[in-house]
Amino acid sequence: xFTEKLIxxxxxxxxxxxxxxxYAMYKAVAxxxxxxxxxSLEEVxxxxxxxxxxxxxxxxxxxxxxxxxxxxxxxxxxxxxxxLEALTFLDSQLAVYLTTRPESLKLVTKEELDKKGYPDKRxxxxxxxxxxxxxxxxxxxxLAQLAKExxxxxxxxxxxxxxxxxxxxxxxxxxxxxLDTILFAGPMTxxxxxxxxxEQITHALSGDQFAA
Length: 212
Hints:
By secondary structure, the chain is of the alpha/beta class. It contains nine helices and seven strands. The longest helix has 16 residues.
């Protein structure tokens, strides 16, 4: 079994799927304000994702910022299939939930995780002084702090290709405590980057394929 590292787990698009809600809301606004026919969600993802597609509109950045900080938007989201079963299985290795959600949503996030039956772990959210655009650097720093706290190596499971690449570079450069990262095949994760489904992650970790 996987015992050499502890897991830090991302939340959005790994555990909770905000994509359908995100797409439906911005589709309605774009069609009303910009008088266009928005393509299907699948096509939007093929074009680069919701941030890329809707980012062309002048209203998007402010509306997206508001939703990222809104309790209502971040409640009652659907769970990513397989996430509950996988994290329940990995309960003893799961140390924390590490999310770029703002600190103001910490209680909401914990309540939603508890309500859906996910393992009871600490939730670490992005502090107010860290800009959303610096989340990769912040998560990398936070993982180093967790490695010191737990005195073990940390394994980050996240759907971000950018973070995955950043952590792999840190590992190659000999960064202590950042010795592994798994890229989850989230709904917005570009395919072809070594991403894994929850079933594959569970199998890999139970087979100790990620041990140092």
